[in-house]
Design goal:
The chain is mostly beta strands. About 15% of the residues lie in helices and about 45% in strands. The chain is globular. The relative contact order is 0.14.
Length: about 375
């Protein structure tokens, strides 16, 4: 668009001045992007302790990225690929870098995202790497069909394990890509995302979660297989926690993992630029005022969980930095039920999920290093 001298420049200059004034007013009044309001966990999101009462299938250190192939569950444990056989984890491959995402294709090929900005296509049967391609900050993977892989890139500035740094720097450089395994071609889908963390195919539509935006989006394509975006709409917003991986069930219901809670203290810190800069440069990352897979393990942590105790019991509204939460969405993308591990619970940091027949739901508690099996009644 050509900009004419005079009037057009005045309009653009005036808009910038008005935007600057609006930002200052919002900062002063604490509203808009400067609001520290966090929606309460109420209604279908009301706190319970179901996750703490659910069967522990096995213990796996830093367990993440649950995925299903055949009748078996696969997972990651830092840089190890793990297969769960009869409730026992078995290491089937050890890689040089941390595994950040997993996805199985129908042909038995496993896509593996690594912290060195690489995606591997791994033949599980032959235990060999058949393809390697570069992608920045891989946070989630999804085989759309046997030849097509959807890749979520969380950030252009940080690697996947540095997710706290991206949040504290108000990151919004995430993107979604489509990669063709046969032709090895990449196609850009959408960008300027605030840490896309989960992908799910629902019919011919693509669901993805946006962690720092506390939302879930739905992409509709113009035609099947062409990946030309017809619409990209936010279908779930203002979540009280940071959304992660998404899986769908056989009846097209959706399980959404939320790996850490939001709270007003963190929201306030995110509005304070100078404070954040000093915190990031002077304080060990373990003790930042930031969400965590598991808090309360060190006396140097801020607020010591921030809980309120009555009669020696930690109350469920305690604004802790870690929590356990997974939400089931109905076909209209509305919460149907939720499973919790409260502030004093033992199943925090639910990062991923996998579904097997007969209503079996498997969850990775990254914060407490265990795999949980929940069977719907």
């Amino acid at each position: 668009m050509l900009i004419k001298p005079g009037k057009d420049l005045k309009i653009i200059g005036g808009k910038r001045v008005l935007d600057s004034i609006k930002t200052k007013v919002n900062q002063f009044l604490g509203r808009g992007t400067s609001s520290i309001f966090v929606p309460p966990m109420d209604g279908r999101l009301k706190a319970n302790d179901i996750l703490d009462k659910t069967e522990v299938l096995c213990d796996i250190e830093k367990v993440d990225n649950l995925t299903v192939f055949g009748e078996h569950i696969y997972a990651s444990s830092h840089n190890k690929l793990v297969k769960i056989i009869e409730n026992t984890p078995e290491i089937i491959e050890t890689l040089d870098y941390e595994i950040t995402a997993l996805a199985f294709g129908s042909s038995g090929v496993l896509a593996i995202g690594l912290s060195n900005d690489t995606v591997l296509c791994y033949d599980v049967g032959r235990k060999s790497i058949i393809l390697e391609v570069e992608f920045e900050c891989v946070t989630a993977l999804l085989f759309w069909d046997p030849e097509t892989l959807v890749v979520a890139s969380g950030s252009q500035q940080f690697s996947a394990p540095d997710w706290r740094s991206d949040l504290m720097n108000l990151g919004s450089t995430g993107s979604l890509w489509v990669f063709n395994v046969e032709s090895r071609s990449k196609k850009y889908l959408v960008g300027d995302l605030k840490w896309p963390a989960g992908l799910c195919k629902l019919n011919d539509q693509l669901l993805f979660s946006e962690a720092w935006n506390h939302a879930v989006n739905l992409i509709e394509f113009a035609a099947a297989g062409d990946f030309e975006i017809k619409s990209n709409q936010e279908i779930l917003s203002r979540l009280p926690a940071y959304p992660s991986r998404i899986v769908n069930t056989q009846d097209n219901c959706i399980w959404l993992c939320l790996f850490a809670p939001r709270n007003q203290l963190i929201e306030f810190v995110l509005t304070e630029k100078d404070y954040r800069a000093k915190m990031l440069s002077q304080v060990d990352e373990r003790f930042w005022i930031a969400p965590s897979f598991r808090s309360g393990l060190d006396f140097r942590e801020p607020l010591q969980g921030g809980g309120v105790k009555m009669m020696g019991v930690l109350k469920p509204w305690a604004p802790a930095f870690s929590y356990g939460l997974v939400v089931k969405l109905d076909r209209n993308f509305q919460p149907e039920k939720s499973l919790h591990s409260r502030a004093d619970g033992k199943a925090h940091g639910i990062t991923s999920a996998a579904c097997l027949p007969e209503g079996q739901l498997f969850l990775s508690s990254r914060g407490d290093n265990k795999v949980i099996r929940y069977i719907e009644q």
